[in-house]
Design brief:
Layout lengths: L12 H33 L3 H16 L2 H23 L3 H34 L3 H4 L3 H40 L1
């Protein structure tokens, strides 16, 4: 059974809302990762290790305790995947392919976050006073790995955003017929 598709081939309100929601949420996340790449991390790298560690711990604590961030972070994937499913059921395979590609690209972002960035954040948080007395050996490893994987997250989330914009364009064409 098709979703609420008009007889003229137009899209449903659900399909429109999901595609727009996915695009906005993925765009917000791509912007966040990009901001870290071009300002936050280079700015922190200019300071001393103690400032770097303190700032990253504070940033991570704010993000961890922020329900809005968590919602946007996860719902971006859910909206992209749901959009792909609704578009496929609605007979708009071209739109579904782009939305599905966006979902896969954004899933890569989540996998990297949960397997690399969050464990590094937790390791930095757990280091406690040992970081202060050991000459900050964790900081160099943290900087190299965290920054590199954040660049990958930026590229993947930006590619997901581009795929969703392409899906929106195709959706507009398909629903005008």
């Amino acid at each position: 059974m098709r979703t609420n598709i008009a007889a003229d081939g137009g899209g449903s309100r659900l399909a429109t809302a999901l595609l727009m929601l996915a695009t906005v949420l993925v765009g917000l996340m791509a912007g966040l990762f990009f901001a870290f790449d071009v300002s936050v991390m280079p700015g922190l790298a200019r300071g001393d290790d103690r400032t770097y560690v303190t700032a990253m711990r504070n940033i991570n604590a704010v993000i961890d305790g922020n329900a809005l961030f968590g919602t946007v972070f996860v719902v971006a994937l859910l909206a992209a995947a749901a959009s792909a499913a609704v578009e496929l059921r609605g007979g708009r395979g071209g739109v579904a392919v782009w939305a599905g590609a966006a979902a896969v690209l954004y899933l890569v972002v989540l996998v990297i976050t949960f397997t690399v960035n969050i464990p590094l954040n937790n390791e930095l948080a757990a280091a406690g006073d040992a970081v202060r007395t050991a000459g900050f050996p964790i900081v160099d490893r943290f900087k190299g790995t965290w920054v590199a994987t954040n660049i990958v997250r930026t590229v993947c989330s930006t590619a997901a955003l581009v795929a969703l914009v392409r899906a929106l364009v195709q959706y507009g064409r398909a629903t005008r017929r």
